[in-house]
What we know:
The protein is an alpha+beta fold and 679 residues long. The chain is built from 14 helices and 28 strands. Strand 4 and strand 5 form a beta hairpin. The longest helix is centred in the C-terminal third of the chain and has 30 residues, at 541-570.
Amino acid sequence: MFSNDQLSALTDLKQNIRSSRDIAHGVVRATSGRFGFVGLDDGRDAYLNPDQMERVFPGDRVEVEITKNDKEQFEAKLEKIIDSPVNFLSGRYRIRGKGHFIATDLHNFDRWIFIPPKLRMKCTEGCYITAKVTQHPFKDGRAQAKVTQNVGNENTPFIEKLYSVCKHRIESNFSAEIENTAQQLIEQAPQADLADDSQGTLTIQDLRHIDFVTIDSASTQDMDDALAISQTDNGWQLSVAIAAPSTDISFNSSLDKTARKRAQTTYFADKPLTMLPETLSIERYSLKAGEERQSLVFQCLIDNDGAVSNCVFIPAIIKSHAKLSYMQVAALLNGQEYNSNPSLSDPVGFKTPLEQLQQCTQALHSYRQAHHIVLDNRADFALYLNKQGKLENIEKIERNCAHSIVEEAMLLTNRCAGDFLAQHKTGLFVHHRGYREERRKDIEALLTEKMHTTISDTQELASYVRTIRALQQSDDAGLLLSIQQRFLEASQLSPEPKPHFGLGFDHYATITSPIRRYQDLYNQRAIYNILANQVVDTLNAQQLEQLQGNVKESRQASMFMEKWLICDYMASKVGEKFTGTVSLLTNQGIGVRLDDSGVEGFIAAKKADKRKPKALFDKISFNNQRMELTWNDQPIALDQSINVTLLRCDHDKNKLEFGFSELVSEEILTGEGMTEKYN
């Protein structure tokens, strides 16, 4: 037995030994290889060798001992797991001999995890499943999981959507409680009749006499917004009516929590998963022609130069007088014929206000060009599926003047809503900071060189706007605009009034789609509360983080399904030649976007093989700071036209591999001075 003094001495010795070691905390980051890294709290990155990586999951928070290897690089040795957020898995069911596994398809986590016999749910080889981690691999590198859902196999109709919904944990059905709540609202009096004193000090105006019209796709049933316009002495008065679900849905109610969890309507190639039950979004809130609806109306004056004044938000009862489609409106304004549609109104009776909307749109667009930022829109494409949920055709969506009318009205409404909410220091703002901070100096230096003028202070909105407008007028406008876009940050939601650099706006808070987007529902409710002199309920930090995460999952679910469908669709076209443009430059190869379909793929550079020194390989030189790439001494630029051949469809990763047919007017040199074209 040790005495107390001896035990104390041993404890002190252990503490001294530990304090002499470099012990740190951090988060595990996976790579495409078997190794990984730990991003340490003090800013260092430490290498995790494959054996160590087998004992953790990406995202695990760990305690590690840091040493330096022969290359003087930091290397981590696992000490303990502090927290492991990975609990949910998705992937394919694999059977090898007597072993059953889930081959996970999470990002940078293509690991096979064992599934014990009693936890297999009678799954068969190759089916798509979700699973729950039952044993962490920290102790011996052997993780275990149990199947939670057998989604189906490759022959299951609409498997792409079914699996994407499960993989990204999007609720495909509403709970019985939510369905009952929706039904109770439907059975109440029409929404417009609820507008007497239900808002307390809020005055509800009767604007049913205004000739509002909706302009949307012909098949759209959940119309969020309607437009009306009238001529003034020096311009127009524009009115934008917005559906008002917030008059029913109180903050933190069960319906509000459900909408927040879904974050937004998720648009899949066949049919969307709506944020709100369709009985509400279509039957109660949609601004249907001939139906009276309670709405939040944005109204302003616009002069002939596109300057805006007298912006107000009005709680009102309105009635849409027509349901019009983009195609109808564009055809009417362009003097073209169009086919009648029994589900749509005849636009002829609204020709005068539609012409006024077009003139107003041109003024607003010119004003944005002069004072804010207007960039060219990338082409959109529509995917058409058959009855089994497989992709049959891809069609390019041609933008027309009707799209521009709606776009300018929505941008203006959301910009003014942002200013209004900023004035009252509340709301959810779409914040875009412009260039990523770690890349700002690189892009400023490059633009200074290319434009022969000093570019600096792009962290300030006014300076950034001047930079983009100068770029648009430069000789190399197209290329330089494409390059600088690769240095931009993604936008994010902010509870503080911050600018949107991408649009060049001081503030931007979306309110025009409250049926389809939670942030719009939230902001609309905030405006109602402000107008009624009531306290505005706010999201806490955790709720905001969850909302942003849910928005991300919704977008990724749509993209995952589309990539899968496109990969299968293109499989029959292997060997065919296509025309596209260079969309991505990397030190591994280049990305390509096809002109006719928007389909994206990659041309991988052939790497040198030490075991085959005489084999041809590609010499790639890529400057990430300047976005410049040479391929066997041949420069390749972003947006450059390129002819490619589809070589392979990788169904495991839903990626397409292209090869050079040729660069338009140029050749690619492959190997040591030898010319080779990929066929």
